[in-house]
Design brief:
The chain has helices spanning 39-55, 60-63, 69-87, 93-108, 113-117, 153-166, 214-219, 225-236, 251-258, 303-310, 326-337, 351-359, 431-439, 443-462, 468-480, 482-491; strands spanning 2-11, 14-23, 26-32, 122-127, 135-138, 142-146, 177-181, 187-191, 201-205, 241-245, 267-272, 284-289, 317-320, 341-347, 375-381, 388-401, 404-416, 421-424. With 498 residues, it is of the alpha/beta class. A nine-stranded mixed beta sheet has the order 1-2-3-6-5-4-9-8-7. It has a nine-stranded mixed beta sheet with strand order 12-11-13-14-10-15-16-17-18, with helices on both faces. A hairpin with a 5-residue loop joins strand 7 and strand 8 (187-191).
Length: 498
């Protein structure tokens, strides 16, 4: 095997080396250079851990609150540091940090899994059983086998219980399934033996610490600045958009990226099962999250509950994580028809499949309601190369025939695999007409507006402005002081803009 990449991650003041190796350019192994300890040292650390747990008392509300985990970690960190200094007064700083890291991961974390959670290159962490090493999904290399494993099934079960307690739930032999989230925002799913026949299983989908932005997606050719400019115009003038795509095609990431185009003075409500959307602080944003029922079956807050309630919160924009059920879709489309600007994701691989998914069970929306959707964007992921692209952009054309409505697709742009570019396919029959009606602009004025937005986006790419907050400031200036922004773009200067 040859080493394909080396990098380090930081934990409690010390560095852990990560090595990725493969054969003939194909990555296979992910190795963490975790410090090893002798039996004597482990026994000493166990005694320190016992003392720390005994001396720090926690209330039930602290144990059950994800929000309090930061304070708990700080208290244990201070206590562990003091105990180490009492027993080993001459210990050097680097060794002390390594011991503290080990103790903190064991006391208030998930052991060695905590190191994996610190790696921003990972998207998924999977524990299949104690008989197999942990596997990870890396953004650049795909699935990799790690050198980290859990010794006992009871330890995996203990980790699942820790995750469950943090969200006020239980996972037992009677309730062997768990869907929850960690204090970091990462989503965790657990299945206990014998439902998971090999052994207890935990799957963690990592929450993006540094989310993709429009600059990133233009640079990596997911979409072009010209297409983003058109989407920006549609969002600015409150047109409703559905983003479709297969599993892991980048639907939610794309929705998060284009949300930055919303005006900062509009009230934005996001509704999700797990917090994945990360909007700029420049937006007037209220995130809403569903809640599962407690062990007695009470206290559930469903997506439908939040969607119905959101209409009473005077929203300008409603963002729905994913359309799954008929009642959710009916309320969502009703919101579109009553003048709300709505954005949502859906599992479908093409515009035609999007229509089929919406108009057939289990969603089964009446065909005539699809007229409220102004744009459909379809995402695609090439599993061989790992690239993600905007696959199709189109519109739904609803036609009434003999008292029945039929829907046909009109693809405006499509991805051309042979040249890896997004090309024009058909002229619009609805989108620009709706834009003209909503804005009062002629087609020439619309083209000029799209051109201005493209210049701003190209300016962001040229100057590598990629943080969500900095892009948020640029968008806020567009809506509040456009002349100053365009002057900066013309001079190619960021001075006074961010």
């Amino acid at each position: 095997m040859e080493v394909l990449e080396n990098y380090t991650i930081r934990s409690y003041g010390f560095s852990i080396n990560v090595s990725i190796a493969g054969v003939k350019g194909r990555a296979l192994n992910y190795r963490l250079n975790i410090p090893e300890f002798s039996e004597v040292t482990l026994a000493f650390l166990d005694s320190i851990k016992t003392k720390a747990v005994t001396q720090i008392s926690l209330t039930a509300s602290e144990i059950l609150s994800n929000e309090s985990i930061g304070g708990i970690k700080e208290r244990f960190h201070d206590e562990v540091s003091q105990l180490l200094m009492n027993d080993l007064p001459n210990i050097d700083e680097s060794t002390k940090n390594v011991l503290i890291g080990r103790l903190m991961n064991d006391i208030v974390g998930l052991g060695d899994i905590e190191f994996l959670l610190l790696d921003d290159g990972l998207e998924e962490i999977v524990i299949n059983s104690s008989s197999e090493p942990i596997r990870v999904y890396h953004k650049r290399y795909g699935w990799l086998t790690t050198n980290v494993s859990i010794e006992k099934e009871s330890q995996i079960n203990n980790y699942a219980e820790i995750i469950a307690r943090r969200v006020g739930r239980q996972i037992t032999s009677l309730e062997p399934l768990l869907d929850a989230h960690l204090s970091t925002g990462d989503r965790a799913n657990a299945v206990l033996y014998p439902i998971s026949n090999k052994g207890n299983t935990i799957t963690i989908r990592k929450f993006a610490r540094d989310p993709w932005t429009v600059t990133d997606l233009i640079k990596n050719k997911t979409c072009t600045s010209n297409i983003f400019a058109l989407i920006w115009l549609a969002i600015q003038y409150e047109m409703s958009i559905i983003i479709s795509g297969g599993t892991a095609s980048g639907k939610t990431s794309f929705l998060n990226v284009v949300s930055i185009f919303m005006p900062p003075f509009h009230r934005v409500l996001t509704i999700e099962d797990t917090r994945e959307l990360q909007l700029s602080s420049t937006l007037y944003w209220c995130p809403l999250i569903t809640r599962l029922p407690n062990p007695e079956g009470k206290g559930e807050v469903s997506m439908l509950d939040l969607l119905v309630n959101s209409l009473r919160m005077r929203p300008d924009r409603i963002v729905l994580g994913e359309i799954r059920k008929q009642r959710e879709a009916e309320v969502l489309f009703e919101a579109m028809h009553t003048g709300h600007s709505v954005y949502a994701t859906l599992h479908a691989n093409s515009i035609g499949e999007t229509i089929s998914r919406l108009t057939n069970p289990p969603i089964n929306v009446p065909t005539n309601l699809l007229n409220a959707v102004d744009m459909n964007i379809v995402m695609f992921r090439d599993r061989r190369t790992g690239i993600r692209r905007v696959f199709q952009i189109g519109e739904f054309l609803v036609e009434d025939k003999e008292s029945e409505s039929a829907v046909r697709t009109n693809i405006l742009y499509r991805w051309k695999p042979s040249s890896d570019e997004i090309v024009s396919h058909n002229p619009s029959q609805k989108l620009f007409e709706e834009l003209s009606r909503n804005t009062g602009m002629s087609q020439q004025e619309i083209n000029k507006d799209v051109g201005e937005k493209k210049k701003i986006l190209d300016f962001l790419v040229k100057n590598n402005v990629r943080s969500i907050e900095n892009i948020g400031k640029i968008m806020s200036m567009f809506y509040n002081d456009k002349e100053k922004l365009m002057a900066g773009v013309k001079k190619n200067s960021l001075e006074g803009l961010i």
